[in-house]
Amino acid sequence: MLQKQGFEQQNVDRIDGELSERKAEYDEIKNSMDAGAEEVEQKKEDIEAILATIEASHQAQTDAEKNLEENKKKRSLWKDKQKNFFVQRDEQTQKHTDLDKEVYRLNQQKER
């Protein structure tokens, strides 16, 4: 009987030990899951911040491209104006030269 009681006590002690181990495992798993959940939330926040940065970058790139196109158009207009200026200058120079020749011719004719 004592022997049977000793075996039963050993079984109870073993079961209590296993229960303590399972409780410790449960607590460890629960803590790990809680830490994992916090890590998941942090990673979600990080992803949101990265997505916002990407969106801002796309917007900045779009703005820069628009600005570049506007500057190209302005440059083209200035080039056309400059080209027209030089064409007009050449025409005026040619007219001036023609008039000088005409004055010279008339002066020559007058002297005769």
Q: Can you tell me about this structure?
A:
This protein is mostly helical and 112 residues long. The protein has 1 helix and no strands. It has one helix spanning 2-111. The longest helix has 110 residues, at 2-111. 0% of the residues are buried.
Could you give a quick summary of the protein structure above?
With 112 residues, the protein is mainly alpha-helical. It has one helix and no strands.
Helices, strands, pairings?
Layout: H1 2-111
Helical run tally: 1
- The percent range for helix content is over 70%
Distance between the termini: 163 Å
SS content category: mainly alpha
Structure summary, number of beta strands: 0
The ordered H/E elements are H
Shape: rod-shaped
Mean pLDDT: 93
Please report which band the strand proportion falls in: under 5%, 5-15%, 15-25%, 25-35%, 35-45% or over 45%. Answer: under 5%
Instruction: Provide the gyration radius in Å.
Output: 48 Å
Uncertain stretches of 5 or more adjacent residues: none
Q: Main beta sheet, described?
A: none
Characteristic terms for this protein:
about 110 residues; mainly alpha; 1 helix
